[in-house]
From TrEMBL:
Keyword Transcription listed: no
Keyword field contains Heme: yes
Family annotation (Gene3D superfamilies): Cytochrome c-like domain
Official protein name in the record: Cytochrome c domain-containing protein
GO MF, one annotated term: electron transfer activity
Keyword terms of this UniProt record: Electron transport, Heme, Iron, Metal-binding, Signal, Transport
Naturally occurring in which organism (per UniProt): Rhodobaculum claviforme
Family matches, as PANTHER family: CBB3-TYPE CYTOCHROME C OXIDASE SUBUNIT FIXP, CYTOCHROME C4
Signal sequence annotation: 1-21
The Cytochrome c domain, residue ranges: 22-98
Length: 102
């Protein structure tokens, strides 16, 4: 039930915000905070990989953290400091990397 509610919140956040083109250069600047935990090479090592995601999925995930629909205190704190333009920029930046190898 909780998982279904989370997915509904993610879909609602995506629909609510609509598509937004991200500024890759701004995303590269903002990514410094992300890459203190997440690796640019896509390796996980206990922290999920965020490289190569489709931009819409990346945006939906960060909006869900920001809104509290996804649980991770660290990610919620980070996401609450980002506006929609910042999130779109990060999505555009991390999409320039190849997806993580499984």
């Amino acid at each position: 039930m909780r998982r279904q509610a989370s997915m509904m919140a993610i879909l609602a956040a995506t629909a609510q915000g609509g598509a937004m083109a991200g500024d890759v250069e701004w995303g590269a600047y903002l990514a410094a905070e992300c890459t203190t935990c997440h690796r640019r090479d896509g390796s996980a090592d206990g922290i999920p990989a965020i490289t190569g995601w489709p931009e819409a999925g990346f945006v939906a995930a960060l909006r869900a953290y920001r809104g509290g629909a996804r649980s991770s205190q660290t990610m919620q704190t980070v996401a609450r400091g980002l506006d929609d333009g910042d999130i779109a920029a990060l999505a555009a930046y991390f999409a320039t990397y190849p997806p993580a190898a499984d």
